[in-house]
Amino acid sequence: MKEMLQSLEDRVVLLTGATGGLGEKLAMDLAAAGAGVLLHGRSPTKAKAVIEKIAETTGNPQLGYYNAEFSSLEDVRRMAEDIRADQARIDLLVNNAGIGPGRRGEERKLSKDGYELRFAVNYLAHFLLTHELLPLIRASDSARIVNVASGAQQAIDFDDVMLERNYDGRRAYSQSKLAQVMFNFDLAEELAETGISVNCLHPATLMPTTMVLETDFFNATVDSVEKGAEAVLHLAASSETSGISGRYFEGKTPAKADVQAYDQEARERLRMMSRSFAGYIDR
Ligand SMILES: NC(=O)c1ccc[n+]([C@@H]2O[C@H](COP(=O)([O-])OP(=O)(O)OC[C@H]3O[C@@H](n4cnc5c(N)ncnc54)[C@H](OP(=O)(O)O)[C@@H]3O)[C@@H](O)[C@H]2O)c1
């Protein structure tokens, strides 16, 4: 049976990576529930098609689009500025955009700023975006932030954060996803007194989305995109999770993340490094 969601009428949602897969499904579900949905994507053509489909299916006219290539921190910062110029508040931020593990033997790639690509797109871009949008999130009376992480998590090697040695796409993906979880726990502590909840999750296992279908690391899909979307909505809008913050879930169940996520010293190292990359402190 479908879970009861809190009313999303007049709520403003920003969803990264809404041009396909889980993000597109979430955009559809949130629009169907009456929310104003701001879709982020890097392809205006894909975004236009998704928005047309959602508008036609749901009849909800409150749909917006913001463009940014997340491998560029400058682009992320510019998108946040655009959003701040247009919007008075954000009630729900879902950090969902991501690149999967890629194909076996694929070469290491760098972001426009010279960081390992998966670390940059899956984690660092969202670190910057979330901080840049905090004034709008604080303007909501009951905001939620959901970080779409993964059960694929691998401890960050602080001697080789950018994976310069023995590059492997699966390791790059897993490290970036654990970085997201560590950021989630930090941010929840930082915002503890504000009423803003910050939770992260493994949405579902091997959903048939682009990032899974394009990889040769796996040879089967397991869960449906619908199942993943339900798990995200459980954290994003269910009364069952109201007031819960700083937690990691597997699907709808509270779970333990990789042990490094609870290591304050490791989190401090990642936080300082990220603040420096984002330009918040001098290098
Ligand atoms: N699929 C799974 O089984 C699974 C399992 C656990 C966790 N997850 C997580 O779920 C989230 C959604 O993934 P998905 O499975 O829906 O994958 P997907 O279908 O490949 O969607 C990824 C989304 O991220 C966007 N994106 C990728 N690179 C980008 C960049 N450089 N700049 C801006 N946007 C970018 C994509 O845009 P384009 O459409 O332009 O490529 C797309 O909208 C990810 O965070 C992933 O780690 C997925």
Using the coordinates shown, work out and report the CATH topology.
Answer: Rossmann fold
Q: Quaternary arrangement of the chains shown? A: single chain
- What is the mean pLDDT? 96
Order of strands in the sheet with the most strands?
3-2-1-4-5-6-7-8
Strand count, sense and barrel status of the largest sheet are: 8 strands, mixed
CATH homologous superfamily (4th level) name: NAD(P)-binding Rossmann-like Domain
Helix content percent band: 40-55%
What gap, in angstroms, lies between the N and C termini? 51 Å
In angstroms, what is the radius of gyration? Answer: 17 Å
Beta-strand level of the residues, as a percent range?
A: 5-15%
Number of helices: 8
Cofactors and ligands present?
A: NADP nicotinamide-adenine-dinucleotide phosphate
| Number of domains as seen in the coordinates | 1
Low-confidence stretches: none
Tally of strands:
8
**What is the H-and-E element order?**
EHEHEHEHEHEHHEEH
Name of the top-level CATH class: Alpha Beta
Structural class: alpha/beta
User: CATH architecture, please?
Assistant: 3-Layer(aba) Sandwich
Give the CA-based shape.
Answer: globular
